[in-house]
Write a structure and sequence with these properties.
15% of the residues lie in helices and 27% in strands. It is built from four helices and 38 strands.
């Protein structure tokens, strides 16, 4: 594809030779002729002097002799260019002979169901949805148009997924929440989990994610939210719109996560609390209580990020500071014990 045509499809400006051909995206140092690279951070501009890429995506204020696509958000343009230059192949519509589709299931136009997939009673699949091999859809599941379930995904009874939802391999949506009541002898009795999971439009769910069904009503994942691999979301949790849950985040039951929140990897969130809109919790933060909207928190228990950075900077000096404090206390006592005059 020539650069000018790509610029028109991406809706961005062009600088330099618009007739150069580009065939794929790549990193600055790994590029070969025909590649399109990008610079999202100005400190990488000097590396363009040695790149073999044929063109680059960068901000308008940055300069390079390479033919360029110009946009204030080069990383976003790179993502869109990758989608154009590396289109994802979609399986052909139809049901594989080795799949099982219940006669009461309703499949929309151009749906694909792969080998050994199981589509249960009264399941509804929207048009152009792809269900890859070994997926299991329990009865009464509903999945909207243009969604993709990769191999090994399990969606439990009654759960609902919206349009353009992508679920990566091995995720479990709607497994029983962790609910048990203790009797007088200290034994645990299971509490039936009778709710469902609702996943709104444009959500991506990573590999081996577990989203528990609600104890009663619903666990809900808001529109546009992105969930990384190995995330656990407990029963009756509500996650807002455009939130990011990075790898190994764990959210306990009945907690509310706001819109535009970022939980940045191995963050643990206690149950029955609220994390407000636009909160950022840095990696390995523990959140035992509610957090106000817009806060940036770190550490355990979670505190203001700036306070955490200041405190963590002196952690390694605490033994030395303790020794000095004890020395000072000893000197003060000696002074106090000296006779007056």
């Amino acid at each position: 594809m020539i650069l000018r045509e790509l610029a028109e499809r991406l809706g961005c400006a062009i600088r330099g030779d618009g007739e150069v051909e580009v065939h794929r995206v790549s990193g600055i140092e790994d590029s070969v002729p025909g590649d399109l690279t990008f610079v999202a951070n100005p400190r990488y501009v000097p590396r363009l002097a040695t790149t073999r890429a044929s063109a680059v995506i960068l901000s308008p204020e940055l300069q390079t002799p390479l033919p360029s696509l110009l946009d204030a958000n080069p990383y976003l343009v790179y993502a869109r260019a990758a989608g154009i230059l590396h289109p994802q192949a979609r399986p052909a519509p139809g049901v594989h002979p080795a799949a099982h589709v219940d006669p009461t299931a309703c499949l929309g136009e151009d749906v694909h169901v792969g080998p050994l997939a199981m589509v249960g009673a009264r399941v509804r699949l929207g048009a152009r949805t792809v269900v890859h091999a070994h997926c299991v859809l329990y009865p009464d599941v509903e999945i909207g148009e243009d969604s993709v379930l990769h191999s090994g995904v399990h969606v439990r009874e009654g759960c609902r997924l919206g349009r353009r939802v992508t679920v990566q391999n091995g995720a479990v949506i709607g497994g029983d929440g962790f609910g048990f009541a203790r009797d007088g002898d200290g034994r645990y009795e299971k509490i039936p989990q009778v709710g469902i999971v609702v996943v709104e439009d444009d959500v991506e769910i990573g590999a081996l994610v577990a989203i528990d069904r609600a104890s009663m009503k619903e666990t809900r994942i808001g529109r546009g939210t992105k969930i990384d691999n190995l995330v656990q979301i407990g029963h009756s949790v509500t996650v807002g719109h455009d939130t990011v849950l990075a790898g190994q985040v764990g959210i306990a039951g009945s907690t509310r996560i706001g819109d535009g929140v970022t939980l940045a990897g191995q963050v643990g969130v206690a149950g029955h609390i609220t994390v407000g809109d636009r909160v950022v919790a840095t990696a390995q933060t523990g959140i035992p209580s509610s957090v106000e909207a817009g806060a940036i928190v770190s550490g355990y228990p979670a505190i203001d990020n700036r306070s955490w950075l200041k405190a963590s900077a002196v952690f390694h000096r605490l033994p030395e500071l303790l020794r000095r404090l004890r020395d000072l206390e000893a000197r003060v006592r000696e002074r106090e014990d000296e006779p007056a005059g």
